[in-house]
Write a structure and sequence with these properties.
Elements (H helix, E strand, L loop, with lengths): L3 E3 H13 L3 H7 L2 H8 L7 E3 H31 L2 H12 L4 H6 L1 H5 L3 E2 L1 E9 L2 E8 L5 H17 L5 E2 L3 E2 L5 E7 L1
Antiparallel strand pairs: 1-2, 1-3, 4-5, 5-8, 6-8, 7-8
Helix pairs in contact: 1-4, 2-4, 4-8
Length: about 180
Amino acid sequence: MTVAVRGHVWRSGLPVLERAGLLANVLAAVPTETAALFRNPPPITAWVPIAHMDAVTDALSTLGGDELVRRISRDGGRDAQPAPLRALVRLLRLGGAGPHVLLARLGDLSKLQVRGVTVGYERVGPREARLTLTYEDSPPHSRLVGMAGRFESLLDLAGAAGTVSAPAPSPGSNAYAFLVRW
C-alpha cells in the first residue's frame, strides 16, 4: 500500500501557504505533478500519494528550515480538522476530558485521513504521552517535522498548551516516536 493522505488534508495546505505568502515559492520548488495538484485540487475523499506532501515539506524546509515546516504543518492541521471532530472535542472538553482522550483515539481517527501509517499511543504521565508513527515507507525528515506540527494542532484542538518533541527513530524500523507534553 502506498502512503497517502485524503484530498481534504492536501487541500488544507493551499490556504495556509497563500496566507503565509509562500505559495509561489513552493510552486516553483515542487515537481510539475505536485504543482498541478495545487492548481486543480483533488476531491476531498481522493487519496493523494504522500510523495506530493513530501515535496511540499521539502520545499518549505529549503525555504525556512524545520521551524517553517512545523509552523505551516501546524496551521494546515488546524485547517484540516473536520467540523464534526472540533464539535465533538469541544463537548468532551466540557465534560472534563483532556488531551489523553483525543490522543488515545488518534490511531482510529487517522485511518480516515491517512493510509500506510500506523499510529501508536502510550500514556507516559498525567500530562504526557508518546505517539509512535510506523510507516510503510521511509519518510524524509521534513515529513516527520511536519507531523510534529500536526500533533501541535491536536494539542490546540484539545485546548492544551504544550510541546511536541522532535521525532526519535526506532532503530531498524520505520517507526518514529514523538513525546507530547502539556
